Amino acid sequence: MIKTVKDDVYSEKKMKNSTIDIIDYLRSNGHPFAQINTIEKLNEPDKTIDINYVISNGPSFILKELI
Description:
Elements lengths: L11 H17 L6 E9 L4 E9 L11
Antiparallel strand pairs: 1-2
């Protein structure tokens, strides 16, 4: 599901598509409130970027019956 790979050229589109694919997977497997944040760290000396996908469960909601 993660389309960003080591030694590949940076692509914001690949990062966004990876995030969407992971969320779709999690939501279809019982995690409807899953959220993903990406953290990017630029390594200036070697001209690379570290990308971390941070997954959290997100807020939950209680549905109440309307009368």
